[in-house]
Write a structure and sequence with these properties.
Layout: H1 2-32, H2 36-73, H3 84-94, H4 99-112, H5 115-125, H6 131-144, H7 150-158, H8 164-177, H9 181-189, H10 195-208, H11 211-225, H12 230-243, H13 252-255, H14 261-273, H15 280-287, H16 293-303, H17 308-315, H18 322-335, H19 338-347, H20 353-362, H21 373-396, H22 404-426, H23 431-443, H24 446-459, H25 462-472, H26 478-485, H27 496-504, H28 509-522, H29 528-531, H30 540-557, H31 572-579, H32 590-597, E1 601-605, E2 610-612, E3 620-626, E4 629-633, E5 636-641, E6 646-647, E7 661-664, E8 668-674, H33 675-684, H34 686-723
Antiparallel strand pairs: 1-8, 2-7, 3-6, 3-8, 4-5, 4-7
């Protein structure tokens, strides 16, 4: 549509307007005998007015566009769809065969149409076969007060075949719309054997506003909160959430500590809708439980700005472990409120580089611009100086298995420094151009990277080009980068021990973990005093790695050095090393792999021992560390899985029955990754999702190739049989 309008304007309207204007000027001159001087003056005035109007539009258009984008990004629903073309599309959507389209059309129509216009389609769609459509219809009936639909709604909840969610919505709608005659119906439904009917009746009575209804439903709700039956406690939590009133938060306090997981999850869902600061400690405790973490994070996100002060107060505690701090900040990033922007803008200059990376990335969904451009450009220099120091470490640490993980960590933090430089530039200069260049530098080929570098070159001032361009040029080797940056940021030559010492004092946890591990591999016993306090750190990777390194030092002191090595235990570090050799995780940053490693369980199988059978429900993926597995259907072998290969990867995304049996061929050690904690990690770490998608895609392509080869073989056999 926009292209057609532009073509029409440029190709027809503009030339026609110029022609008509010329004809009018000619007629005025000939008919009035006006001299050219006054006419020229009049034209100059018109041009001046036109230029002024253009300048005003140029100034106002970006403001209007930014405001519109900001509303959309922050969830502002104020967009209108009241033009004729949009209404026709909505009407077509109401008749669509796909329920999703009907639900969306109803939602849009509800924003733009009067109650009279909504009445007929709502009553008609109450009989729609899709439960989701009927639920949306009931919500719109409630909003538009369509009381004519009450007889049909009453029939809806009484129909045994109606899904539970439809019954709940029908009864809550009755409670809001019906008169006193419906009171007895709702009170009687409180003791209905169907829990969905009880839930809907309680919501209907509590929302009706009548004193008798509130008392009846409130007493029932209190009994359910204190019930010995977990199903009733779960229903109570769902009712509290559906009410959405902060006044009911106290009912949730015992439910958030319930011993039954499904009750806690329902209570966490309700907490996001009725958030009160006194629920903050309960939600924080839930974030520490692996089973509750995702629901607790979602509750904070649902609560939005109301919950922000609670999280901020915890995040700013100096004694807070980094893992907890980062988990909370990732929740803040998802909140999408004004306070989020202000908080992340402050974190963009934090001492911890990982936190700066998280904050700068977190600002991307918002229409954020640098409030102090000079400060942001100064931080470009600071980040480049940090990268130069890391490049010098990378060059000086040398080669060898003992320092391989340290070199990998340095490469990770150099890449993060490059990313932060580009993000800082995007908040000062044209964000679209900078971010497109960033993608070209990260994912493009050599030609695309060169073009991306040119884009940055045209944007940044001359004084930054000498430091920024060498750093972000992905076609330049590390040694060349260091040479080009040395005139701006001279670096002293350092020994391995000095580099490990610097890593141990780094604010970044993963760099410290790797520093501790490298100290053990290099037997740097003079660093013992720095490592000993880390053995009692609250961070599991740090504590575990420090304990291992101190064991190596003790073994060295006692003279038993022949067996020193990482294979004495499967530490988090060793798990990271294994994961780095698995295709699924090959492109995942090491610090993210450390989080994955903490989720892994170990499984040991004897020869001939089954891992799982065909038809078993699968919710875990396995990684072969050592040994070999046979994938089979009965006695027929389908495939063999060797070291560093995965099996059962589909179960991580879709818990369906296993399509084959898997048995150990020899003594085998496996890592097990379960679905629920993996989902929690994927919410915050998109790199992990990319890895599993890459493996699943490769598997599907392999199956397609197998089918193509099989089909070709079948066709060949058919031709041979036809020829004979």
């Amino acid at each position: 549509m926009g292209a057609r309008v532009s073509a029409l304007s440029d190709g027809l309207i503009e030339p026609l307007a110029v022609s008509i204007s010329g004809i009018l000027v000619l007629l005025v001159v000939r008919q009035t005998n006006v001299s050219t001087a006054p006419l020229a003056a009049a034209i100059l005035v018109i041009i001046a007015l036109w230029v002024g109007a253009v300048i005003l539009l140029i100034r106002e258009y970006p403001r209007a566009l930014k405001l519109a984008l900001k509303k959309r990004r922050l969830g502002d629903p104020s967009f209108q769809f009241d033009d004729q073309a949009s209404q026709q599309i909505i009407q077509a959507g109401l008749n669509d065969l796909r329920p999703e389209a009907v639900v969306y059309a109803l939602h849009m129509m509800g924003q733009t149409s009067s109650s009279d216009q909504m009445r007929e389609p709502l009553i008609r769609l109450l009989n729609h076969p899709s439960a989701n459509v009927r639920i949306e219809v009931l919500r719109q009936i409630e909003i538009h007060q369509v009381r004519e639909a009450l007889p049909m709604i009453d029939h809806l909840w009484r129909t045994p075949e109606s899904p539970p969610a439809v019954k709940v919505e029908a009864l809550r709608t009755i409670g809001l719309l019906a008169d006193d005659a419906a009171f007895e119906t709702l009170v009687a439904a409180l003791d209905h054997p169907d829990s969905a009917v009880q839930q809907g009746a309680m919501i209907g009575l509590l929302r009706s506003g009548g004193l008798d209804g509130v008392l009846a439903a409130g007493q029932k709700l209190l009994r359910m909160v204190e019930s010995a039956h977990e199903a009733e406690r779960e229903t109570a939590a769902l009712v509290i959430g559906a009410m959405g009133s902060r006044r009911n938060y106290a009912f949730l306090l015992p439910l958030l500590d319930d011993p039954v997981l499904r009750v806690r999850l329902a209570a966490l869902g309700a907490a996001g809708k009725v958030f009160h600061p006194r629920l903050g400690d309960k939600l924080m405790a839930a974030l520490e439980r692996q089973t509750d973490r995702a629901a607790a994070a979602h509750a904070f996100v649902m609560a939005g700005a109301a919950a922000f002060p609670v999280i901020q107060a915890v995040v700013e505690r100096p004694e807070l472990p980094h893992t907890v701090q980062f988990r909370l900040i990732r929740v803040i990033v998802r909140m999408r409120c004004e306070a989020t922007i202000q908080f992340l803008a402050r974190c963009a200059f934090h001492a911890n580089a990982d936190l700066r990376t998280l904050a700068l990335n977190g600002l991307l969904p918002f229409d954020f611009r640098a409030p102090d451009e000079a400060q942001y450009l100064q931080w470009v220099r600071t980040e480049t100086e940090l990268a130069a120091r890391l490049l010098s470490f990378h060059a000086a640490v040398g080669q060898g298995d003992e320092v391989a993980l340290l070199k990998s960590a340095l490469e990770l933090y150099i890449a993060k420094a490059q990313e932060r430089v580009l993000l800082l530039l995007s908040y000062v200069f044209d964000p679209v151009a900078v971010l497109h260049a960033r993608d070209g530098l990260r994912f493009g080929d050599k030609r695309q990277r060169a073009y991306a570098l040119e884009r940055i070159d045209t944007l940044i001032p001359l004084e930054l080009k000498g430091i920024v361009l060498p750093l972000i040029d992905m076609n330049t080797a590390y040694s060349t980068k260091l040479t080009l940056l040395s005139p701006f940021f001279p670096q002293a030559r350092r020994t391995r021990e000095q580099i490990v010492h610097a890593a141990l004092n780094s604010p970044e946890e993963w760099l410290r973990v790797v520093g501790v591990y490298t100290a053990g591999r290099l037997r740097l016993t003079r660093l013992r005093s720095l490592i000993e306090p880390l053995a009692s750190n609250e961070s599991l990777p740090l504590t575990e790695t420090a304990a291992w390194t101190l064991e190596q030092f003790d073994a060295l002191d006692s003279g038993h050095i022949s067996r020193i090595g990482v294979r004495q235990m499967l530490s988090i570090i060793e798990k990271v090393i294994v994961l780095k050799t698995v295709d699924m995780f090959a492109q995942t940053p090491d610090d993210v792999l450390a989080e994955v490693a903490q989720l892994l369980g170990e499984v040991r199988l004897a020869p001939g021992e089954p891992l799982f059978e065909m038809g078993d429900l699968g919710t875990s993926m396995y990684i072969v560390v050592t040994g070999q597995l046979r994938v089979h259907d009965g006695d027929y072998t389908l495939d063999l899985r060797n070291e560093r290969q995965v099996v059962g990867e589909m179960a991580l995304l879709d818990p369906e029955p296993r399509t084959a049996s898997v048995t150990a061929v020899e003594e085998t050690l496996l890592f097990r990754l379960d679905q629920e904690p993996f989902f929690d990690l994927m919410m915050d770490r998109s790199e992990v999702m990319r890895g599993i998608l890459r493996v699943i895609t490769a598997s599907l392509r392999a199956r397609v190739r197998d089918l193509a080869e099989l089909r070709a073989r079948v066709q060949e056999l058919e031709r041979e049989r036809a020829a004979s």
